[in-house]
Amino acid sequence: MKVAVVDGQGGGIGSTIIRKIKDHFGESVEVIALGTNAIATAQMLKARANRGASGENAIVHTVTRVDVVIGTLGILLAHAMMGEVTPRMAAAISGSVAIKLILPLSQENVTVVGVSDEPLPHLVEKLILDHLRPIVAARNQPNDNSKG
C-alpha cells in the first residue's frame, strides 16, 4: 500500500505524520514524501519516508499513483502555504482517486465549521487510528476470489 504525505514550507507537519505512520505500520506501508519544496521533502525523508520528491510536477504525477494522500487542508487550496501550493497541485490532489485524509489545519483564511480545535499530535493519532488503520487493514485482507 502506498501513502503520499504532502507538505510544504519546513515539512514539520508532514514529518510528524510520517513518524507516526512508521511507528504504527513499519514497512508494511510505503510512505512517499511529497514536498512543495526541497526543504520540506528533506525533512520528511529524515522522518523515515521510503521515497521523496519535490515540486509541482512530482506532486501532480505521484498523487495519481498512490492509495492514500495525507496532508493539511492547505494541500487542497490553490496558493496555500504562502503560495507554494499551485493551482495545478491543488487540482491534482483533489481530483486524485486516492483516498484523501485531510487534517483541518490551515494558515489560510478558511474555517472548517464544526471541527474542534485539537493539537496536532491528537489529530495525527486520530488520523492513524480511526482512518488510516481501517484502510490498511482492508487492503491487507486476503481476496476471497483467490480461494482455489
Task: Report on the architecture of this protein.
- The protein is an alpha/beta fold.
- It is built from six helices and five strands, in the order βαβαβαβααβα.
- It has helices spanning 12-25, 38-46, 56-62, 80-83, 87-95, 120-140; strands at residues 2-7, 30-35, 51-54, 68-72, 99-103.
- A five-stranded parallel β-sheet has the order 3-2-1-4-5, with helices on both faces.
- Helix 1 (12-25) links the parallel strand 1 and strand 2 (30-35).
- Helix 1 (12-25) runs parallel beside helix 2 and helix 1 (12-25) crosses helix 6.
- It is globular, with a radius of gyration of 15 Å.
- The two termini are 25 Å apart.
- The mean pLDDT is 94.
Short synopsis of the structure:
The protein is an alpha/beta fold.
Tell me the overall shape: globular
Compute the CA-based radius of gyration: 15 Å
Largest sheet: 5 strands, parallel
Please give the share of residues in helix.
40-55%
Compute the number of helices: 6
H/E element order: EHEHEHEHHEH
Mean pLDDT: 94
Major sheet: arrangement of strands: 3-2-1-4-5
Structural class: alpha/beta
The percent range for strand residues is 15-25%
